[in-house]
Amino acid sequence: MARRSRRIRPNKNEQAKESVDFLEKIFERSLPKDSQTSDTAARHILAIGKKHGKRPSREVKKMICRSCKKSLLPGRTSRIRVTSKVIFRTCLRCGRVNREILGKDGDC
Fold first, then answer.
1. Which strand (E) or helix (H) includes residue 38?
2. Over the stretch 62-102, which tens digit does the pLDDT of each residue have?
3. Cβ pair 43, 80 in contact under 8 A
4. Domain assignment of residue 107, yes or no
5. Is the residue at 25 inside a domain?
6. 80 lies in which domain range?
């Protein structure tokens, strides 16, 4: 009997990384223009990260509310307050407050 050839599939970790990168690009492009598209991309980024352990970049992570899983656009869907060495990001949809302490260099 002839031996069946196996289909070579890319590694799932690579696929997850590519998916997160692709969704990050869509998220960043649609954030100021289309809130529904950016909300959907944000929800999918978090879902892939939870399932496969591939987390989004730091910049994108800051722009997603972890409670309601929607995009945070400063002035529209979020409020940002800066005090001495602390940044407060408040989601205007669900009210969740995220506090970020600045380091010595002023980096977040």
1. helix 35-52
2. 999 999 999 999 999 999 999 989 999 999 999 999 999 98
3. no
4. no
5. yes
6. 12-101
